[in-house]
Write a structure and sequence with these properties.
The chain contains 15 helices and 19 strands. The protein is an alpha/beta fold.
Length: about 475
């Protein structure tokens, strides 16, 4: 079965411009997006904003089904919202051979991928071989056997002069970027304490929720999301962000060789148990699909989505804890806790009820005798950073220093997709601006996520203790 809707009709259905105005696009757009099999809401978040020089018309290649419908519904919401509505006009190509059709027809020059993760890297490689740029949601690979394919895709992108980038939104969260600035300020942080496997220098704890609200609406997850062979486990997915943040923070602008610089030491995993009624509420499916039947025990799905991984990076001990709970408590949501231990101070991001569950940044002096010097160093560093972070300040809380971040800088997770896309467009228009370290460090990142996940399957299935304050 093949279905093709005209751009004018689809745009009208989506609440975009009136049909008679569909041919009026921006002057000479140099970028036209092609979204492939959008099975995850991150594909839609790329289109939450409009971009200069990007065509309003977007081609969607996907099988006809609920994933496509949910994606179009999200674009509907962006096109019809009251404040700053978007103006996307969607050209839909729905057929079983959607990917091959995209490669044959190629109405655009950028492929956006977000959805099923098994086989994603093969589509990325085929796209760059066709001379197309790729903006792909994480994770790109689920097993270490696919590392050579990832390396081939990145090499092919270099050879053809196209940009192939994964969507690392967490670099744009101001608490994370300011944490990076302070960790790399010797007057504030000192030197990194290399730590041990038991007392790591770097620790992150990320808690996500299976039932949540996205872009103002309940997030309906496709049933395959709960198939770890298709979606990956928790460390495959969320772990990508955490590993990326560790590398990006500790070694800004430096290349990491995973063969020599990274050693995965230990890992463990444990499941979140999902009763069928909860599964129904988040997927709109009456029962568990056959593809995950082997993981269903006494009416509950044993969903392996929690992982603790310890590894060393240039001899710095790092521990990452990825957790998927069912539903957040009122007023809360996904949370992130992270600290880096230095000889002068610990730089810490945390989200607690006391902070209204917003991420906040703290500097904790290593000793009371250092407090005055650390406070002066933080004040000087923030003053230097104000041109890029207008309105930042500090609050002396005695034993720790709270970095105050104005609401104007807190754009939120969904807005970070537009920031990533903006960087991607900069690289696309001048590939010389793409940092040389992105390619090797992406390989290092996926080495840790795949090896850590694989190692966790060999150990005991038991929950790791949570360290983050509540």
């Amino acid at each position: 079965m093949s279905s093709r809707l005209s751009a004018a009709l689809v745009a009208a259905l989506l609440g975009g411009l009136p049909v008679g105005m569909q041919k009026r696009e921006r002057a000479m757009p140099d970028v036209r997006l092609m979204t492939v099999d959008p099975g995850h809401f991150h594909a839609a978040l790329v289109q939450k904003e409009m971009y200069p020089g990007v065509s309003e018309r977007v081609d969607v290649y996907a099988p006809l089904g609920p994933d496509l419908t949910e994606h179009l519904n999200r674009i509907v919401a962006f096109n019809t919202r009251t404040e700053q509505p978007t103006m996307w006009a969607m050209e839909v190509h729905a057929s079983p051979d959607f990917f091959q059709r995209m490669l044959r027809e190629r109405p655009g020059n950028v492929v956006v991928l977000s959805g099923r993760n098994r086989g994603k890297i093969a589509r990325i490689l085929a796209s760059v071989r066709a001379g197309l740029h790729v903006l792909g949601d994480k994770p790109w690979i689920l097993t270490s056997d696919d590392l050579p394919v990832l390396e081939a895709a990145l090499a092919e992108a270099d050879a053809r002069g196209v940009v192939s980038l994964d969507i690392m939104t967490e670099r744009f969260e101001p608490t994370n970027s300011l944490q990076r600035e302070l960790v790399n300020d010797p007057a504030t942080f000192g030197e990194i304490v290399r730590g041990t496997a038991e007392e790591p220098a770097v620790y992150m704890e990320s808690v996500h929720y299976l039932k949540k609200v996205v872009a103002g609406a309940p997030n309906i997850r496709p049933p395959w999301f709960f198939d770890t062979a298709e979606q990956g486990e928790g460390f495959n997915d969320i772990g990508t962000h955490l590993v990326d943040l560790a590398q990006w923070t500790l070694f800004p602008g430096r290349t990491i060789d995973y063969h020599a610089d990274v050693h995965v030491l230990a890992a463990q995993r444990w499941p979140t148990w999902i009763p069928v009624e909860d599964f129904r509420s988040v997927t709109n499916e009456a029962r568990f699909p056959e593809s995950i039947a082997a993981s269903v025990k006494e009416g509950r799905l044993e969903y392996f989505c929690n992982t603790l991984v310890s590894y060393s990076l240039h001899g710095i001990y790092t521990k990452l804890n990825v957790i998927w709970d069912w539903e957040p408590q009122a007023g809360s949501g996904d949370t992130h806790f992270a600290f880096y231990r230095g000889t002068r101070a610990r730089i810490e991001v945390r989200q607690t009820r006391a902070d209204r569950f917003r991420p906040e940044l703290y500097v904790v002096p290593a000793a009371a005798a250092m407090k005055a010097q650390v406070l002066a160093a933080v004040r000087a560093r923030l003053e230097a950073l104000k041109p890029g972070y207008p309105g930042i300040g500090l609050e002396d809380r005695g034993a720790e220093i709270h970095i105050t971040i104005p609401d104007s800088l807190r754009l939120g997770h969904e807005a970070h997709f537009a920031q990533v896309t903006g960087s991607f467009l900069t690289y696309l228009r001048d590939r010389r601006t793409l940092p040389a370290w992105e390619r090797p460090n992406m390989l290092a990142k996926y080495y840790v996520t795949t090896k850590g996940t694989e190692l966790s399957r060999e150990g005991p299935s038991r929950p790791a203790p949570r360290i983050a304050p509540r």
